[in-house]
Amino acid sequence: xxxxIAATATQDRPLPWGWLLGALLVAALAYAASCAWxxxxxxxxxxxxxxxxxxxxxxxxxxxxxKGSGTRLRFGRRVWNRFARVRKAAS
Length: 91
Description:
Oligomer: single chain
Mean pLDDT: 85
Distance between the termini: 83 Å
Strand order of the largest sheet: 1-4
Structural class: alpha+beta
C-alpha cells in the first residue's frame, strides 16, 4: 500500500516583471504615436458638434470649451508640445 501525500509543494515563480515593463513600454509608445498622428480628439462637452441646442432645438449656441471647433488637444499632445517648447527655449 502506498502512503498518501497530504500536500504537494508549490514552486514560487518570480513575477514576470520584464514582460510587464515591456508591455507598458509598448503601450506608451503606441499612445505617443497616436498622439503624434491624431493630435486632436472630440470635445467632451459638446461631443464634437461644436454647438449646443436649447431643449426645443430652436436656438443654437457655440460651445465655450472648444470655441465652436468641436475638437480639443489630447493630453499626450499637450505634454509633447510642452517638452518641445522647453527644449526650444533651452537652445
